[in-house]
Amino acid sequence: MDQARSTISKIFNGEPHSYTRFNLTQNMEGDNSQVEMKLSSDMDEEAGGNGVGARLNHNSNHKPFVAQKLGRTPKNLCFMAAGIFLLFIIGYLVGYLVHRNKEVAPVCSASIVPSEGEAVREMGSPPMMDWDDVKKLLAQKLTASKLDSAFIEFTLSDHVAGSPGDEDLGNKVLNRFKEYGLKSWTDEHFVTVHDLPASNINRIVFKNSAEERLVGFLSYSATGSVKGAVLYAYYGQENDFRTLRDRNIDLSGRVVIVRAGRISFAEKVANAAKMNASAVLIYPDGDDYSFDENIQLFGHVHMGSGDPYTPGFPSFNHTQFPPVQSSGLPKILAQTITRRMATNIFRQLGGQTLPEGWKGFHKLGDVNDSIVVEVNNILTQKKIINVFGVIKGFVDADRYVVVGAQRDAWGPGFAASTVGTSILLELARSISEMVKNDGFKPRRSIVFASFTGGEYGSVGATEWLEGYLSSLGTKAFSYINLDGIVTGQKLFKVAASPLMHTLIERTLREVKVNNGLSLYSQFAKGNWELTMLEPLKMDSAAYPFLAFSGIPSISFRFTSDNPDYMYLNTKHDTREKLNFVTDRRVPQLAEQGGRFAGHIVLRLIHDHLLQMDLMKYDKIIRSQVSQINGKVVAVQRMQPTLFPKSLTVQWLISASGSFSRASRKMANDVQNSDLDDVEMCRIINDYLMSVERNFLSPYVSPRDSPFRHILLGSGPHTLKALSSHLDALRASTPEADGDLFRNQFALATWTLQGCANSLAGDIWALDNEI
């Protein structure tokens, strides 16, 4: 009996108390190698002196641990049989008693979203609230009437970033966070922006017309005075300028006049600068803006986000910065003008007739249509204050989702900032009440952020990211942007990381709108990805979170078909104007938008596993690599001298295949693994959190190319830039450079392979072949 007791003791003590087999792709050629993750609460070292590293046992050829400990003699086998029989009896009795007195312990939710109506079983500490109960609680607490009251409290006519009005709103937000019981704090930055001149003026003079003084302005424009010939360039998109170049029109030194809309002010100016224009004038055309012809536009033209005079660094006070400027600052003048001013210019233009499909007056302008543009904006340093509050999680408190809204505006900014700020505060109140009064215990934390400086290019949000990048990049698993949620009512648009698409679709089906219909039923119209998804734009605060920090992000909005809400970027963005375009349904639309955001936030902090769909990126990568392959073949056929025969797309295809195998294998292994262990869930979530971050190219400087994401970022390192460069090589345009392309191609290949390696497993388990 003593020997049996000894044998049983060896069986229990020889293995860790918690054991989970978690398979990962290790061989890039698709072999069947596996990783065994042994999870132990005491983290003891295993035999052999390998320490913690021995917990990942790749392709071990050793006998099982128990077999090593026990000899295979008949005597030992008898004792083992007796011990196993005794264990069976004890286990049966314990199981019977537990079954009588306890409910069945729920298990960890699957990584793949279950079909609608399927019960999601949860387990772990703290006790999990049923998801249907969570949804009901949010619906009860987040109401249109509560939001309507918040609109009144947070409406202010003047709250430009850094102004007393902005600071007053920040204090109100801080006090509300404290009232709701959130741990609260503020974050100060001292940023440099361009503002209107205090004494000098911005002006234009066309031919012999009278001087026009300008009230609207574009922050970060170059300053000075230029004289050039006017040229109409439609919306200032890249294809618009190509159309002009194909007509053999010389754009050098021209003052380009373009319509507002379709792309950002900064993109219009950057496109014009590539064509060597000397200045850009932007006006609101009547086709897109039906408001008064004298309304002025405001904005910025920094092709980036954050303080452009401290690129890559946070603008903390008394901190030393390298004497550099953002590469996204334009070197040409940029200024907004009114529709009346633009109409007076168009009526006097000569030159060629408009290209087919372009709307406007009849002529593009010729070399005799001269205009003087003078911009005298001044650099100003402002103190801006971001405000934060946190609801801490009960399991993984150091992992958090960030929910943010812009607080500043050029004028009243009701759609631009008031609605988003009100939803932010109501979500904080609702969820804090759920935790304090209703027994809801989130696994992970929620950080509520009220950012300022948004009108200057997401300055507050970006400076916060730059200041705490090392922490946010590894601990923040998502950013939910609440800016501009309500600008209409006919359409619902979503822009997000592909990792979040599956979660978004499920949320669209859950959130009800009119007559019990879901957002999906109301707006999807068959294929939600075609009708509701749109690219994430650089002027969204979610963009730097995704493309600069590698944090999966989402931005969404109720909007109109055409034209969109026209009072953004003006001082006429009031509640009355927004009520007019929404049939006075702003509180109801804000409630629906708040519930959509709330459902995503609560799902991310409620489930054991983050709902991130790896296979979405796999499809995107394979599609883009296929396009690049086809274009390379075409260029080699048409321009054989540009590429050596040794340059093939096989390396890039192999890297794509590595990512595809690693993502499929991980998704399958996560789905099929036993996920009852809290530590195991944390490990898997950390893998999922690293995916977006690994798409940031390590081969470009965050200072020169801050948006380093190779799929969704901006710059020559992206796969989109590779494809565009191939188009230029095929057409033999001046910007085509075969050597530069080969460099871009190599760096993109290794970035993609690095993503696959990180997803596949640990360094000792990787295949070094590509």
Automatic annotation (TrEMBL):
Keywords: Cell membrane, Disulfide bond, Endocytosis, Glycoprotein, Lipoprotein, Membrane, Palmitate, Receptor, Signal-anchor, Transmembrane, Transmembrane helix. One of its GO terms (biological process) is receptor internalization. Residues 386-585 form the Peptidase M28 domain. Residues 232-293 form the PA domain. The keyword Disulfide bond applies. The chain crosses the membrane at residues 77-98. GO terms for cellular component: external side of plasma membrane; melanosome. GO terms for molecular function: transferrin receptor activity. It is found in: Cell membrane; Melanosome. Stearoylated. InterPro entries: PA_dom_sf, PA_domain, Peptidase_M28, Peptidase_M28B, TFR-like_dimer_dom, TFR-like_dimer_dom_sf. The keyword Cytoplasm does not apply. It is a single-pass type II membrane protein. Residues 649-759 form the Transferrin receptor-like dimerisation domain. Belongs to the peptidase M28 family. M28B subfamily. Homodimer; disulfide-linked. Cellular uptake of iron occurs via receptor-mediated endocytosis of ligand-occupied transferrin receptor into specialized endosomes. Endosomal acidification leads to iron release. The apotransferrin-receptor complex is then recycled to the cell surface with a return to neutral pH and the concomitant loss of affinity of apotransferrin for its receptor. Transferrin receptor is necessary for development of erythrocytes and the nervous system. Acts as a lipid sensor that regulates mitochondrial fusion by regulating activation of the JNK pathway. This is Transferrin receptor protein 1. It comes from Gouania willdenowi.
